[in-house]
Amino acid sequence: MLSMSQFSVEHVPVLLGEVLQWLDPRPGQVIVDGTVGGGGHALAIAQRLGPTGKLIGLDLDPAALESAGARLTGLPVELVHGNFAELPEILDQLGIAKVDGILLDLGMSSLQLADPTRGFSFSQDGPLDMRFDPSRGQPAWRLVNRLSAKTLAELIRRYGEERYSRRIAQA
Hints:
The chain has two domains: 4-110, Rossmann fold, CATH 3.40.50.150; 121-170, no CATH class. 43% of the residues lie in helices and 11% in strands. The chain has helices at residues 4-10, 16-23, 40-49, 62-71, 87-94, 110-114, 140-146, 149-160, 165-170, and strands spanning 30-33, 54-59, 77-81, 101-103. It has a four-stranded parallel β-sheet with strand order 3-2-1-4, with helices on one face. The radius of gyration is 18 Å and the shape is elongated.
C-alpha cells in the first residue's frame, strides 16, 4: 500500500498532455483545479502559470490535500478543503472575481481505491465508508444497515445504474 508521501512522488496524472493543451494555462492566469487530488495536474499547471499566476486547488479529501501540499511547495498555489460545488462561495472568500480556467478530474484516485481503510476498495476488505471527506456525512456502512431494502435498492439503481439493485439490496 502506498503512503501519502509515496503517492505525491509516484502519482502520474491521467491525460496530462491533453489537459494542458485544452486548458492552455499561461503566466498570470488564475486556474482552478476543483479536484486537486495528489497534485499531478496542479503541478504542471502551476509551473505554466509562473509567479504571476495562481492555481486554486480544491479537494474534499484531507489526505489528498496533504499530498498535494507536499508536492506543490513553493508554487503559486492556494489549497482549499472544500467541494467544487461550492466554488462561487470559495472564490468569493478568497477575493477572486474571475478565473481563466477550471479543471475537474472526477472520480476516485488510485490511492483512495488502494487504501482499504477508506472504504472505496472493491478488491480488499475494509470498513464500508465511501466518503471523500471522513468528517462529512455518514459512512456507507451506517446507511446500508439503517435503510430499508426498498430505499437501498432505489439508491443502487439510481446512482449505481445497477439493474440488479433489488437483489443486491436484499443480500
